[in-house]
Amino acid sequence: MSELVRIDETTWEIPASARPDMRVPARIFADDEILDEIAGDLSLDQLENVATLPGVVGAAIAMPDIHQGYGFPVGGVAATELPDGVVSPGGVGYDINCGVRLLALPLTERELGARREPLVHEISRAVPAGAGKHGGIHLASADLDDVLRNGPRALPGVRAEDVERTESQGRLEGADPAAVSERARMRGSNQLGTMGSGNHFVELQEVDEILDPETAEVFGLGKGQVTALIHSGSRGLGHQVCTDYVKLMDSRLSAYRIHLPDRQLACAPASSAEGRAYFGAMAAAANFAWANRQSIADAVRRAVRSVLGEDAASGTLQVYDVAHNVAKVEVHDGIRVCVHRKGATRAFPAGSEDIPVAYRGVGQPVFIPGSMGTASFVLAGERGSLERSFGTTCHGAGRRMSRTAARKRVHGSELRRELEARGIVVRCPSPKGLAEEAPFAYKDVDRVVRVVEQAGLARRVARLVPLGVVKG
Amino acid sequence: MYRFVEHTAELEVELEADSAEGVLAEALRAFAELAGSGEGELVERPVELSAPDPPALLAAWLDELLFLADAEQLLPESADLEVDGTSLRGVLRTRRGEPRPLVKAVTLHRLRFRPENGVWRGRVVLDV
Predict the structure, then answer these.
(1) CA–CA separation, A345 vs A326, rounded Å?
(2) CB–CB of B98 and A134 under 8 A?
(3) What is the CATH class of A5-83+96-400+442-471?
(4) Where are the domains of chain B?
(5) Chain B interface, mutation test: which of A243, A250, A395, A399, most B Cβ atoms within 10 Å?
(6) Concatenated DSSP letters of A194-208
(7) What is the SS3 assignment for B6?
(8) Contact call for A264 and B109, based on CB within 8 A
(9) Cα A113 → chain centroid
């Protein structure tokens, strides 16, 4: 590992001089224990690779939930100066606009009482899981184009306040359905409204602790309140868009005289034909993902209506929806840049015009899911994020153990019993999939959010604990 | 021969055979272990792929298997392939079924496909 220079308690840097091909330093937000955890894998080598991208400015940045990925590390941020800095599909990842949406139900855990288990079961029936197509909303080609251009606004009966309380209001400008391949359309046409597999889930939770009462009130959260956290992305459509453009840009590297230390970092100048086409397709896939989480939120409300009644369903309000795999055009320090966030969340502070009016006094909400069975956090963006991380904070706990190692350590049925013994209702089609997401396979989420708070990127607002989990 | 290698978040597959075609057959077997097998009648599909270099051809082959599984629920069983440098053609035999939800995409990270000391070796990292 290259020499790490400690900047302050939670900030470290690898100078640009560490490698001849690095254009900027690599900056890591971490404490000693987190640094020890990533020392054994390729996370920092991958971060140094990101620092070689043409047009990269400031620093290649890693959040405390960083772990080794392919190409970019997960938990990585890179900004490239426009118009000619590069855009890299691998810097967004295959699950374009994978993200998290939080709904707040109008009742407390005590008021929910014995209806907890029926509600979790009803949510599992209402939200199709897994990777297949069954249960998704079939979209005719014209309707799919509408979703790709307009996101949740293309869906019937969508609440205006849901759209308002979604990052970028659920619609990235510049989306170009024509840049999305027929293969991507085929993979996505029947998957709208499905959760997907792996670490995707819908979790029913209770607000366990309020850490910032004023901000929690603005977000509509109170102690004991029941919430539903939705984690999903752009499904097969997004996976295929990334596949198509990694392949295209990989084939054009020599034409742009771009030399990369890792083929998966394939990229092209944002101003090039390939760069513009990718941005149009990526924005379309991001809009699809927001529509997907909207459809899942609608399904959760149907489950709430079925178990708790109409008043509870109509009173189930969206707190916010954030993307954590996306590239966006933003202005930082007066420079127009393309910010790649791969496993990292925008965290704009109070005063930003890019967040809902209701939140401009406190900063945007950010949701940090913990591992299954542990706490999740609601954060608020802080000014330090603009100064130090291109307006970005972490996105989750971050894996620390491979899926195979997790399966070797616990069986799914044993884990289910442990969770149920703690009163957590579990609905998961695969014991193997359950074991792979065991809490010990992830870093300690409390530690991760303490680091971003100490670094001034975001502050803790509320801590949520699980009541039930529906996994893909 | 194929084997899965430990990776923090993703899944790395190492492949080995006597020929390029053999490595692609091993890749099919590894994918089938992850995606599961189908039922009912055999569905044959002609396949013709080309890529800028041999490693990209291995990725393109797995991309094809993933696309057929995700978009058409066709799970691979076997294939007769001929490889000519950076292209392949042949017939893929599949059966319909619900793919197990694991593989999202085939990456170019650490990608390898070449002969070494008389043995063909491949390596690919899958996003799962």
Answers:
(1) 9
(2) yes
(3) alpha beta
(4) 2-127
(5) A243
(6) --BSTT-EEEEEEEE
(7) coil
(8) yes
(9) 31
> Which positions in chain B touch A246 (Cβ < 8 Å)?
107-108
- Which residues make Cβ contacts (< 8 Å) with residue A421, sequence separation at least 6? none
Contacts of A71 in chain B (CB under 8 A): 107-109
Annotated active-site residue A138? The verdict is: no
Which CATH code of 3.40.228.10, 3.55.10.10, 3.30.70.260, 2.130.10.10 fits the domain covering B2-127?
A: 3.55.10.10
3-class secondary-structure state, position A146: helix
**Cβ–Cβ gap B109/A71 under 8 Å:** yes
**Contact assessment for residue A191 and residue A466, using Cβ atoms and an 8 Å cutoff:** no
Phi, psi of A40 (to 5 degrees): -85, -5
For chain B positions 4-23, those within 8 Å of chain A (CB to CB) are 4, 6-11
Q: How far apart are CA B122 and CA B128, in angstroms?
A: 19
Q: Is there a contact between A239 and B101 if contact means CB atoms under 8 Å apart? A: no
DSSP string over A84-141: TSEE-GGGT-SSTT-EEEEEEEEEEHHHHGGGHHHHHHHHHHHS--BSS-TTSBP--H
pTM for this model (two decimals): 0.96
Contacts of B54 in chain A (CB under 8 A): none
**Which ipTM value was assigned to this complex?**
0.96
Q: How far apart are CA A104 and CA A461, in angstroms?
A: 14
Question: Following DSSP, what letter does each residue of B7-74 receive, concatenated?
Answer: -SSSEEEEEEESSHHHHHHHHHHHHHHHH---EEEEEEEEEEEE-SSHHHHHHHHHHHHHHHHHHH-E
**Beta strand segments in A412-453, E:** 425-427
Distance of CA A279 to the CA centre of its chain: 18
Question: Tens place of pLDDT for every residue, chain A, 472 residues?
Answer: 568 999 999 999 999 999 999 999 999 999 999 999 888 889 999 999 999 999 999 999 999 999 999 999 999 999 999 999 999 999 999 999 999 999 999 999 999 999 999 999 999 999 987 555 456 777 877 799 999 999 999 999 999 999 999 999 999 999 999 999 999 999 988 899 999 887 899 999 999 999 999 999 999 999 999 999 999 999 999 999 999 999 999 999 999 999 999 999 999 999 999 999 999 999 999 999 999 999 999 999 999 999 999 999 999 999 999 999 999 999 999 999 999 999 999 999 999 999 999 999 999 999 999 888 889 999 999 999 999 999 999 999 877 888 888 888 888 888 888 888 888 999 887 787 788 888 888 888 999 999 999 999 999 999 999 999 998 7
CB contacts under 8 A, B 99-128 vs A, are 99-102, 104-111, 125, 127-128
Q: Does B86 touch chain A (CB under 8 A)?
A: no
Nearest chain A residue to B109 by CA distance is A264
